[in-house]
From TrEMBL:
One of its GO terms (cellular component) is ribosome. The keyword Cell membrane does not apply. This is 50S ribosomal protein L7ae-like protein. Keywords: Ribonucleoprotein, Ribosomal protein. InterPro entries: Ribosomal_eL30-like_sf (IPR029064), Ribosomal_eL8/eL30/eS12/Gad45 (IPR004038). Residues 2-54 form the Ribosomal protein eL8/eL30/eS12/Gadd45 domain. The keyword Ribosomal protein applies.
Length: 61
C-alpha cells in the first residue's frame, strides 16, 4: 500500500490524471516533480519515470 506518490509534471496527461484520481480515492498524498528525468534521477535510475510510489512499511519487509 502506498504512503505517498510522486508524479512527473511532464508525464502523459492521461497518466497524470488517472494516478491523481486513484490517489484521491485511496487518500494517498501526491507530490508533483518537475520532470520525468528528475524523478528517475531521484530514484537512482538512468531513465525517466512518470510515477513513483513510496510504500508503507519497512524497506525489504
Amino acid at each position: 500500500e502506498a504512503r505517498k506518490v510522486f508524479i512527473a509534471a511532464d508525464a502523459e496527461p492521461h497518466i497524470v490524471e488517472a494516478i491523481k484520481k486513484l490517489c484521491q480515492a485511496k487518500e494517498v498524498e501526491v507530490e508533483m516533480v518537475e520532470t520525468m528525468e528528475k524523478l528517475g534521477k531521484y530514484c537512482g535510475i538512468d531513465v525517466g519515470s512518470a510515477t513513483v510510489a513510496l510504500l508503507k512499511g519497512p524497506i525489504g519487509g
